[in-house]
Amino acid sequence: MGSALSISLSCDAIVSRCWDSIFGRVRYVRKLQENLQALTTSLQELKSLKNDVQREVELAERQPRLKRIEQVNNWILSVEALETEINEVIVSHSTQEIEKLCCGGYCSKNYRSSYKYGKKVARKLVEVEALKSKGVFEEVATESLPTALVDVIPSEPTVGMESIFDQVWRHVEDEQMGMIGLYGMGGVGKTTLLTHIHNNFNRTRNDFNLVIWIVVSKGHKIEVIQDKIGEKIGLSSGEWKHKEQHEKAKDIFGILNTKKFVLLMDDLWEPVKLTEVGVLAPDSRNKFKIVFTTRSEEVCGQMDAQKKIKVGCLTWEKAWSVAVCHWHSSQWAGSWPARKHPKSGSMQFKS
Predict the structure, then answer these.
(1) Spatial distance between the Cα atoms of 57 and 65, rounded to a whole number of angstroms
(2) pTM here?
(3) Which of 145, 156, 260, 235 lies closest to 199 in space, CA to CA?
(4) Integer CA distances (angstroms), 272 to 42, 58, 216, 257, in order
(5) What count of other Cβ atoms lies within 10 Å of the Cβ of residue 326?
C-alpha cells in the first residue's frame, strides 16, 4: 500500500508540473500582445522618469561642489542599458512575432518562437517595473569634498619661455582680457606653455571654478569638441551624445553660463565657431577666458583674439644661456663642448 501511494503521489506531482509548464508556455503566447503593449507603456514611463532625474542631476551639478550620488548615476546607466537592450531585442522583432500569432492570439504558427519571445517580453516587463520602483530619490547630488581645480598634466619645463609665461598669465588675471591666442611654428613649445598655464591654476589663488582643457587638432568637428567639453562638465551620457548639435550647444551653454570658467584649446588649425559649440565669446561682463594655441597668426585674428602672443624659437644668446644652465644642473657634462653649425651659425651640442 505504501509503495502504491508513493507512486500515485509521484505521478500527481509529475502531472502537476507538466500542466504548469504547458499552461505557462500557453500564457506567454496568449498574453504576448498584452505584455508588449504594457512593456511599451512602462518603458516610456521609465524613460520619462530618467529624463526627470537627469535634469534634476544636471541642475544640481551647476552648483559649486555638488556631485551626483553614485547610486543615482548607476540607476541612470542601468536604465539606458535596459532601454537599448529592449529596443534591440524586443521592439525590433515585435511586428514579425505578432504576425505569427493566430486563433485570436491564443496560438502561433511557430509556437516555439512565440513562446521564447513572449517569455523575454514578460521578463523585460518585470525588469522595467523594478527599475521604475527604484527611480525615486530623496536627493540626487551631495556636497563633495574640495578638490583641485585641475588635474596636473605632466610636462617639460618651460626653459627659456618664463617671460612669455608671465605675460600670458598676466592677461589671464586681467578681467578685461577674454580671448588670448598663442601662435608660432610647430615644435616651438606652444603646447608646453599652455600645459603650464593649465597647471598653474592649482598653484595660484584665483576665483575660477572650472578649467577645461581640450585638444582640437586639424579637421575638427563641432560635435567632437562638444563631446570633449561635455565630458568635463557632466554631460557624458550615451543619450546626450546622440543629441543634435544645436541641442548639445544649448545644454553646454546652460551649464557654462552659470560658471566662471577657462577654456584652453590646443592646436587650432582653423577658427572654431564657438556659438555652434555652445560657448559665448568672452568679454568684460561674463569674465571667463579662452586661451588657445595655433600655428597661424591669421587664426588668432579670425578668432577675434584680444591678445596675440608669438611663441618663437630662442635667440642665439638665450639658447646659449639655457644650455649653460642645463650643463651646470644636469648630466650634460659629457656633451660639452658646444660648436657652431658651419652654415646656420646656431649652437649644437655633441650628444
Answers:
(1) 13
(2) 0.55
(3) 156
(4) 43, 26, 9, 19
(5) 15
CA 341 from chain center: how many Å?
49
Q: Are 186 and 295 in contact (CB under 8 A)?
A: yes
Beta carbons within 8 Å of 284's beta carbon, 6+ residues apart = 175, 176, 178
Tell me the pLDDT tens digit for each residue of 200-252: 988 888 888 889 999 998 888 999 999 999 888 888 777 888 889 999 999 99
To 10 degrees, the CA torsion angle through 95, 99, 105, 107? -130
Determine the residue type at 138: E
Chain segment 301-346, per-residue pLDDT in tens: 999 999 999 987 655 455 545 444 444 544 444 444 444 444 444 4
> Residues for the chain: how many in total?
351
Helices then strands (H, E): number in the chain?
A: 13, 11
All 3 cell numbers of residue 231? 565630458
